[in-house]
Design brief:
The chain has eight helices and seven strands, in the order E-H-E-H-E-H-E-H-E-H-E-H-H-E-H. By secondary structure, it is of the alpha/beta class. Helix 1 (18-28) links the parallel strand 1 (5-11) and strand 2.
Length: 224
């Protein structure tokens, strides 16, 4: 029996890019469920997503990326879950290759790290912070990845249905890594090309505010 695949796409004010992401998913994996979770967008994100009849649109009114993803994990049933951001920065063209490796090696959690193809001057501090944070994880937690914060991940049903998300926002990627590590899930990492956001499209991640929250989350998680 062929495995059911679900793309989970959390979004907040991504009207400029959500349609592009959906179209790319339909091109690379036309058989997949596509679940878009709107997290209180005030632009035309919902209207853009509704242009695609195949899309399952969910609404999560509790603010935060992790809350949006939790909504999808609770309501969508699939064998493999692929989480990706709605900003059209990740190259999805090799997704079927990732899935092949994922299935053939019985992986439960695959992180797809970003290969930056272009420099973004206005994001230099965020990228520097990402490097410092990942180095911290490598030293303190023994992480072998240098891009834990990537928003592109593949997860098995066993992983997702046993994962009780505790975070609310951008701590999610860190929590996924910690959950996989602490529960000895079989993991892997692949690489995808990563592009800058298009003009007038902005990240919701705050370098200092969210970075501090992530570090606090790590410290609290390890005390459990």
């Amino acid at each position: 029996m062929e495995k059911q695949i679900a793309f989970i796409v959390p979004c907040l004010n991504e009207a400029l890019t959500i349609g592009k992401v959906i179209a790319k998913i339909e091109e690379v994996l036309p058989e997949a469920i596509i679940c878009v979770i709107d997290n209180n967008s005030t632009d035309n994100t919902v209207e853009e997503a509704q242009k695609f009849p195949k899309v399952t649109l969910l609404h999560e009114y509790k603010a935060g990326k992790a809350n949006a993803v939790k909504k999808a994990f609770d309501e969508i049933d699939a064998d493999i879950y692929i989480m990706v951001d709605a900003d059209d920065t990740y190259d999805l063209s090799k997704t079927r290759e990732y899935l092949k490796y994922f299935n053939e090696n019985d992986i439960d959690y695959m992180n797809v790290k970003r290969k930056y193809l272009q420099q973004e001057e206005h994001n230099i501090f965020r990228r520097l912070g990402n490097r410092v944070f990942n180095k911290f994880l490598q030293i303190v937690l023994g992480s072998s990845s240098d891009d834990v914060l990537s928003g592109f991940k593949l997860m098995s049903k066993k992983f997702v249905k046993s994962f009780d998300i505790k975070s609310g926002g951008f701590e999610l990627e860190t929590e996924i890594f910690l959950f996989a590590k602490h529960n000895n899930f079989k993991t892997a990492e692949m690489v995808c090309d990563y592009y800058p956001r298009i003009e007038n499209s902005y990240s919701k991640l705050s370098f200092w505010k969210d970075g501090t929250r992530i570090l606090k989350f790590i410290l609290c998680y390890n005390k459990r």
